[in-house]
């Protein structure tokens, strides 16, 4: 169980999973759905002290491989723990 909690902590610490990045992603998705231009989205994000569209993209890209790897480890541990139930 300790390993599982450690993996979940590592997942939460990824750049794409920070509170600011998650809020920025929600804002970006909402504004894009409304047809707002990227420049205007960046202005909105800056007004709320959130990372820009480019920064969010970099954070997501930097987190892709670690996210995949940690999720894979987590699923493996969950399957192993399920055998003990």
> Approximately what portion of the residues adopt beta-strand conformation?
under 5%
Low-pLDDT segments, ≥5 res: none
- Please, what is the average pLDDT? 95
The largest pleated sheet is described as: none
Distance between the termini: 13 Å
Helix content class: over 70%
| Shape descriptor | elongated
Radius of gyration: 17 Å
Q: In sequence order, what are the helices and strands, one letter per element?
A: HHHH
How would you describe this structure to a colleague?
This protein is mainly α. It has helices at 2-12, 19-33, 38-47, 53-82. It has 4 helices and no strands. Helix 1 runs antiparallel to helix 4 and helix 2 runs antiparallel to helix 3 (38-47). The protein is elongated, with a radius of gyration of 17 Å. The model has no long low-confidence stretch (mean pLDDT 95).
Features:
single chain; 85 residues; mainly alpha; elongated
What is the gist of this entry?
The protein has four helices and no strands.
SSE diagram, text form:
Blueprint: H1 2-12, H2 19-33, H3 38-47, H4 53-82
Helix pairs in contact: 1-4, 2-3
């Amino acid at each position: 169980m300790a390993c599982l909690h450690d993996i979940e902590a590592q997942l939460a610490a990824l750049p794409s999973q920070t509170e600011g990045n998650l809020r920025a992603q929600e804002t970006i998705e909402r504004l894009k759905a409304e047809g707002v231009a990227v420049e205007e989205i960046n202005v909105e994000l800056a007004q709320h002290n959130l990372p820009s569209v480019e920064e969010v993209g970099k954070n997501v890209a930097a987190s892709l491989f670690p996210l995949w790897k940690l999720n894979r480890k987590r699923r493996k541990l969950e399957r192993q723990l399920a055998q003990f139930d």
